[in-house]
Amino acid sequence: MATEVESWTSAPQTDAGAVFSLEPEKGAETGLYDELNESEVNGNWTPQEKALHEARLKAKAKRRLRKSSSRDSTRDSLSESLTGEPGADPNSPKGKTHSNDRKSRTGKGRGLPKKGGAGGKGVWGAAGMVYEMEEPDAKDPNYDESAQGDTIYATVVPVLEEGEFEKAVNPIVQEYFEHGDTREVEMLLKELNLGPRKYEFSSLALSLSLEGKASHRELTSRLLSDLVGKVISESDMARAFHKTLQELPDLILDTPEAPQMLGQFIARAIADHALPMNFLNRYKGKVDCDHARAALDRASVLMTMKKEMVRLDNVWGVGGGQRPVKHLIKEMNLLLKEYLVSGELSEAERCLRDLEVPHFHHELVYEAVVMVLESNGEGAIQMMVKLLQAFWKSGLITLDQMNRGFQRVYDELPEISLDVPLAHSIMEAFVDVCFQESVITAQLRDACPSRGRKRFVSEGDGGIVKN
User: Fold this and answer.
1) Are 405 and 362 in contact (CB under 8 A)?
2) CA neighbours closer than 13 Å in the CB half-sphere of residue 458
3) Exposed site from 210, 318, 319, 437, fewest CB < 10 Å?
4) Which residues face 455 on adjacent strands?
5) How far apart are CA 388 and CA 193, in angstroms?
6) Angle at the Cα of 159 (from 157 to 165), degrees rounded to 5?
7) Residue 165 CA from chain centroid, whole number
8) How far apart (Å, rounded) are the C-alpha atoms in residues 261 and 10?
9) Calpha distance 234→282 (Å, rounded)
10) What is the model's pLDDT at position 154?
11) Would you tell me how many other CB atoms lie within 10 Å of the CB of residue 328?
12) Interatomic CA distance for residues 411 and 405, integer angstroms
């Protein structure tokens, strides 16, 4: 056994030396070098144990080389080690395959970068490539907002869909009928994105005003005039009136006077420069609908009449509380004078309702009483009592408005008596008749001022005037 071990150790190590390079400076593993030295020192192994030990060391060396190199470098180093040729050091940078290396790893090709360095995301590109200036991407993780200058924030409002249009616009028109501020409507419309449906706003406002009061139609005419050129163009306005003309057969079901009203709207819009002057000429000889023809005829008649006969700015009459107080007083005086001439209670009631100023009805009572004081004769007293009685029974004039109108006359009676010397006696007679006809209350009758007779006493009393 001793002679066999000595012969094996003294024999030239051709196979083992060819397979493994035991010198550390040539790239062999230091752990493998130490294990072989231990095997040489231990001389108690049989030849079979030695061969088994060598096979294990070879397999272990292969596994270490595979972990530290790529497939191609592993094949080359193994073939060189097996053939006895000196291989590259696997620990050197050249002997390793980096994860960022752009060379092919399939073993095919010439080992050059893909597409000359321009094949993939995040690469610099091929040599000689000229890059253009790119806009910064806000989604880029390295995007610096402060380095991009001033940032402009814009609110994107989506276009209103067909089902949402009426829900958004209808409340705006209804609220406008209450406050009458066209600037607020303009601001609200600018916040909405009406898109190609701008003309439908005017058409909807016209339809709602036809179902409302005369004051609503007056407010609608003002609104259309103020919105032209700011929110709605003349072409959109003409398109809105064209749509309303086509809808007249349906509108007359709820509003029988819709054709005449629409004709007044058209004439007022042309006078306010909301519609082009040639709007009526476009429909001459081209209208088949009788209702649309009636509306256009009404508009043409109003446009051809003289200014002394009609004023288009008052085509809807007095527009409620939006009118000046002096104008309302003038309208009430005309109402009372026409009633004294004609004696028609229904016409007087209609005119008062058209004024749409229930909070100002005390002015009518005041003017009626003053007109009685300034008149001569019993006829005026009876007619005014009849008028006030009709308004009282219909509820057109409330108790508060009636009391306030009479109280104003009571307060100004001394001044009225300067022009009308018999004002006190006429007032007492008028108040008595109104109380008998249940127009005023007993408390209001008792509040009427009365001027008592004055008499002078004898000289012994010192000339004191007694009442």
Assistant:
1) yes
2) 1
3) 437
4) 466
5) 52
6) 115
7) 11
8) 130
9) 15
10) 74
11) 18
12) 10
**For residues 157 and 188, is the Cβ–Cβ distance under 8 A?**
no
> What pLDDT is attached to residue 105?
62
Element housing 357 (H / E) = none
Q: Which two tokens stand for residue 307?
A: 């200014």
* Pair 380, 341: CB distance under 8 Å: no
Structure tokens at 314: 């008052």
pLDDT tens, residue by residue, 100-152: 655 556 666 666 666 666 666 777 767 777 677 777 777 777 777 666 666 67
| pLDDT of 8 over the 80 cut | no
Contact predicate 302/310, CB 8 Å = yes
Other Cβ atoms within 10 Å of 354 Cβ, number: 18
Burial class (CB in 10 A: 0-12, 13-18, 19+), 381: middle
Q: How does 155-177 read in b/e, with b if 16+ C-beta sit within 10 Å?
A: eeeeebeeeebeebbeebbeebb
Q: Say which amino acid occupies 77.
A: S
Q: How far apart are CA 201 and CA 220, in angstroms?
A: 11
Which residue in the block uniquely carries the two structure tokens 């094996």? Answer: 8
Token pair listed for 110: 């010439």
Distance CA 267, CA 290 (A): 18
Q: Report pLDDT digits (tens) over 249-299.
A: 999 999 999 999 999 999 999 988 899 988 998 998 888 899 999 999 999
- Distance of alpha carbon 36 from alpha carbon 22, whole angstroms: 9
3-state secondary structure 41-95: HCCCCCHHHHHHHHHHHHHHHHHHHHHCCCHHHHHHHHHHHHHCCCCCCCCCHHH
Question: Token pair of 80, please?
Answer: 């060189």
What value, to the nearest 5°, has the Cα angle with vertex 294 and ends 291 and 300? 145
Instruction: With CA atoms as reference, report the closest residue to 295 among 267, 262, 328.
Output: 262
Pick the closest to residue 77 from 25, 21, 13 (CA basis). 21
Under 8 Å between Cβ of 53 and 45: yes
Q: In this structure, what token pair is assigned to residue 374?
A: 């300034």
pTM summary value: 0.48
What one-letter code names the amino acid at 397? I
According to DSSP, the residues that pair with 465 across neighbouring strands are 456
